[in-house]
Automatic annotation (TrEMBL):
Annotated keywords: Plasmid
Domain Transposase IS4-like: 285-509
Organism per entry: Halococcus dombrowskii
Keyword Signal on entry: no
Listed name of the protein: Transposase
Pfam families: DDE_Tnp_1
GO molecular function: DNA binding; transposase activity
Signal peptide coordinates: none
Biased composition (Basic and acidic residues): 158-170
GO biological process: DNA transposition
UniProt-annotated stretches for the region Disordered: 158-183
InterPro entries: RNaseH-like_sf, Transposase_11
Length: 531
């Protein structure tokens, strides 16, 4: 008897399910409960309690008034699990997690940068402060005060820290330097004095005065004999270098020996000291860095030496075409446009392979507690580099997508490029961009909340949002080559070439520090005003 009754109930429920599904199918896959009551013969009690029926979801907003089938929500939902069909009252919001509480917990756990109440309100289309606060009170999510708002995150400390670090770079950073003021000129004798004030405590291999003369040579492009004559003729230079009379100036051979004996790492100590002072006085110093490389040609006497690869440390490589020489890699602070770390490799060295030594050099010399992200071009795009950056600097590496890695990534890169071309001014966070990307395509490439591929695309979008910061590194390379002779190498020994390379960075930063100490902030990035 009971079995017959149960079967009858099952048949009735099945009949109601089929009727509701058919109605939804013919009405855009979503309908209000009132429409279902008026348009079908399904009993009111079934429709009132339809949220308890496994095949159907009710909307998270509009007091759960709208109904959709579980299958449709699953197939039409975006990367973050939402489906938002238009209805008479605006937009109905459905989520794969079905109810508000599990949806909010899912978002707090899975969103790379956590969740705030205002973000939850926008996502769910309803007020979410109370349910979020209740989840936090029950210790199902963690609430953290962050910049005058509460961020709800994963309850595990490691995941929570990662989410808060991601949130640091969710908004496009504006660290654009002010337009340079007309602060007159900088004087070379002032620059020499600035460098000497630092070099006295950092140099051991040669005297600070001779090192200062070598820094001066980077701006002049002189031979060592010409440098000797310049110092002999210029009283202000001699005074800055503490050479009383012209005959006190070292001869060209002595200056060459000083250059040969000067250790590049001691120059890096000077660079670190000067950059540290400049960064400490800048509001956004140390928040973003840019990593990039350029090439410089080797100095050879004959074509045969180049063709036979006879210059120590040089080799054939590719960078904007083929070249014979070396590659120079920089870490540049985005806000101050200072070359804070510099390494040199042979010309055939792959950009990605040079990444770890450069990052280690930077990490050993600077406090990176305020660092929010490192940016780089597609040449540094690899999971190993991202993991190494996170481990060493405790910040994400945001690289442009390297389309040669796979055809899906090439397609995604084109989609992101087109997206920012059309909607760049409307995108204030990575989520805005993800919502505008073709959701079917993201699903096809296995993109879902929390998996590795989503993280990769998420970081690629953030790189696009911060790409304007990368322009600074090109300006730094331009200044190094135009004003400090980076690409005018006149040395053949590998160690001497490296000395020349680091001297260029030291000379540029010495000019910036001189401008700051002389209270001429408009000249910090203007070595052209050095006389």
């Amino acid at each position: 008897m009971s079995t017959s009754t149960s079967d009858a109930c099952d048949n009735t429920a099945y009949s109601h399910k089929i009727t509701v599904r058919e109605y939804l199918r013919t009405h855009g896959e979503v309908a209000s409960k009132d429409d279902l009551r008026a348009g079908t013969d399904v009993p009111a009690w079934y429709i009132t309690n339809i949220a308890s029926q496994p095949p159907f979801y009710t909307s998270l907003n509009h007091n759960n008034e709208y109904v959709a089938s579980k299958n449709i929500v699953g197939h039409r939902s975006t990367h973050d699990g939402f489906w938002r069909p238009e209805v008479d009252d605006g937009v109905a919001v459905f989520h794969r997690k079905e109810d508000a509480k599990p949806t909010l917990k899912h978002l707090a756990f899975r969103r790379p940068s956590g969740l705030t109440a205002s973000e939850a309100n926008d996502l769910l289309g309803r007020r979410s402060y109370r349910p979020l606060q209740k989840l936090a009170d029950q210790q199902e999510v963690h609430a953290t005060e962050w910049l005058d708002t509460t961020v709800y995150t994963h309850s595990w400390p490691s995941r929570r820290d990662d989410q808060l670090a991601q949130r640091e770079t969710d908004q496009p950073a504006d660290v654009t330097p002010d337009d340079p003021a007309d602060d007159g000129y900088l004087y070379r004798d002032e620059l020499v004095a600035t460098f000497l004030s630092v070099a006295v405590s950092e140099l051991q291999s040669i005297s600070p005065e001779r090192a200062a003369a070598l820094v001066l040579r980077q701006f002049e492009g002189d031979s060592f004999d010409a440098l000797e004559r310049r110092l002999q003729r210029n009283h202000s230079f001699r005074e800055a270098l503490d050479y009383t009379e012209p005959e006190d100036v070292p001869d060209g051979t002595s200056l060459w020996r000083a250059f040969d004996e000067l250790h590049p790492d001691e120059l890096r100590d000077c660079l670190q000291s000067m950059c540290g002072e400049l960064l400490a006085d800048h509001e956004h110093g140390g928040e973003f860095v840019v990593i990039d490389g350029t090439h410089i040609a080797a100095w050879a006497n004959t074509r045969d030496e180049i063709e036979n690869g006879e210059v120590e440390g040089a080799s054939w490589g590719k960078h904007e075409g083929s070249f014979y020489g070396y590659k120079v890699f920089l870490v540049v602070d985005a806000a101050t446009e200072l070359p804070v770390a510099i390494t040199m490799e042979t010309g055939k060295r792959n950009d990605s392979a040079a990444f770890e030594p450069l990052v280690e050099e930077f990490n050993e010399r600077y406090d990176t507690d305020d660092l929010q992200a490192a940016l780089a071009d597609a040449g540094f795009d690899s999971q190993d580099n991202r993991d190494f950056c996170q481990d060493q600097l405790d910040c994400p590496l945001l690289t442009a997508i390297n389309p040669r890695r796979s055809s899906p990534l090439a397609t995604i890169k084109d989609e992101i490029k087109e997206l920012f071309k059309e909607h760049g001014e409307e995108i204030d966070s990575p989520y805005d961009a993800l919502e505008r990307l073709p959701q079917e395509q993201l699903s096809e490439y296995g993109v879902s909340v929390g998996n590795v591929e989503e993280t990769y695309i998420f970081q690629a979008i953030k790189e696009r949002m911060h790409r304007h910061l990368r322009a600074g590194v090109e300006r730094v390379f331009s200044r190094l080559k135009s004003f400090t002779g980076l690409d005018r190498v006149r040395a053949r020994k590998k160690n001497n070439v490296e000395t020349h390379v680091v001297l260029s960075a030291v000379a540029l930063v010495a000019a910036s520090l001189t401008a700051q100490r002389q209270n001429k902030p408009g000249l910090i990035r203007s070595p052209s005003r050095l006389i």
